[in-house]
Every structure is written in structure tokens, then in C-alpha cells.
Amino acid sequence: KAGVTQTPRYLIKTRGQQVTLSCSPISGHRSVSWYQQTPGQGLQFLFEYFSETQRNKGNFPGRFSGRQFSNSRSEMNVSTLELGDSALYLCASSLAQTSGGIWDEQFFGPGTRLTVL
Amino acid sequence: AQTVTQSQPEMSVQEAETVTLSCTYDTSESNYYLFWYKQPPSRQMILVIRQEAYKQQNATENRFSVNFQKAAKSFSLKISDSQLGDTAMYFCAFMKHVSYGGSQGNLIFGKGTKLSVKP
């Protein structure tokens, strides 16, 4: 099976612009989560999507948004970019079985390196 | 709120030796999962090992094992027979127990330990 893919791998934007990042999960995986990784704050959870619905959200401003399509592919959008948004954005997918109490491993993509100038 | 603390920003070990990475966490939850993730210089995060809090037995995966002390809220990772390919950032992570229909995505990570394996 192909792994989690993220596009683009590298992106350079300027302050005030907006950006859209894409994540394609492993085939059959229904949950996609997004994380921001910075040297100062480490890895922080942004949000999780399951069946096209946002199921959980971290503590980020409304400039950060996402969506999931019927094929489980997900996009995240950051509007009005700030210098502090420079980070590695990771997405992770999991099977997300519907039975409670079942843990499904999250598989991470290689990330998108966003630089805001 | 849950927190995860890794007190060793950097460590180094000689090839073939054993190294232990420390992790402590804070939670009021009684049922949860703990993980160690590895992020090599290529950046793809990989799960190394996981532990369910309700299990008393420490998890083991080949050369990797954990020392889970629930009362002390400690979760250390031991790497035996270190190999050059073990060079990476290692992240300790926490996740609450998943209930029916609940989110599985919210991993809480520590700041990481950069491990260098020297030949």
C-alpha cells in the first residue's frame, strides 16, 4: 500500500497570503489528522477529520481550517499568513474503526515545509 | 489538560550500546495510550512502540522496550544494541482512551529527544 502523501513538500509564501496543503491518506483510512511542528512549540494537534466532518480541534486560531472529501483526502488552509506560521505541517491517517476502544495506529506523511517571509 | 515532558533534549550513544530516553506525563485520565515515535532526518514519523495504560506488562518491540510506571507517570524507552539507523528525534506521546465514535487523532507530544548514535 502507498503511504500517506502530502503535497506540496515545500512552500514559500509571504505574510498576508493564504495557503492550501493537501494530504492523501492510506487507502481505506478514514481519519486524517493534522499537526504543526515548530522548533519552539514542538508538535501540536490542529484538527482531525473523519467522514468529511471535523471530529476534534486543537487550540489554533480560526485562520486555520480544513476539510475532508468523500475519498478521505484532506486539505488544510491557512489564511492571512503570519511569520509564526512557518512550520512543518504533518498529516496522519488511521483506519478509525467505529468500534469503541479500538486503537488504530496513525501513519504520518512526510510533511509540508511552509516558510512565510 | 494533559502534558508530556521529555527532559533530555539531546543524547548520544555508541553503536551497540544501550540507551534510555525519559518521558513523564501528567493526566487525570485513568485509561490512555502512550507512544514513542521516531522521526529520522528524512522527517517521516514512525511509530516505535505503544503501551496501553491498563496493561501492567511493559511493551517490547525487538530492540525497543519501555518501562511504564503508571503511578509515577513515567514512560521511558530503552533501545538495546543501538544502530546507526536509530539516529533520529524521538517523541513521547499521549492519547486519551478512545470511546465509541471518539476522535483518535489528538496525540499530545513531548518536545522530543534528539538521539545520535555514534560509530
Report on this structure.
The complex is a heterodimer of chains A (117) and B (119). With 117 residues, chain A is mostly beta strands. Chain A is built from no helices and eleven strands. In chain A, strands 2, 4, 5, 6, 9, 10 and 11 form a seven-stranded mixed beta sheet that branches. In chain A, strands 1-3-8-7 form a four-stranded antiparallel beta sheet, with no helix packed on it. In chain A, a hairpin with a 5-residue loop joins β7 and β8. In chain B, the strands form three sheets. In chain B, strands 2, 5, 6, 10, 11 and 12 form a six-stranded mixed beta sheet that branches. Chain B has a four-stranded antiparallel beta sheet with strand order 3-9-8-7, with no helix packed on it. In chain B, strands 1-4 form a two-stranded antiparallel sheet. Chain B starts with a strand and ends with a strand. The chains are: A mainly beta (117), B mainly beta (119). At the A-B interface, β4, β5 and β9 of A face β6 and β11 of B.
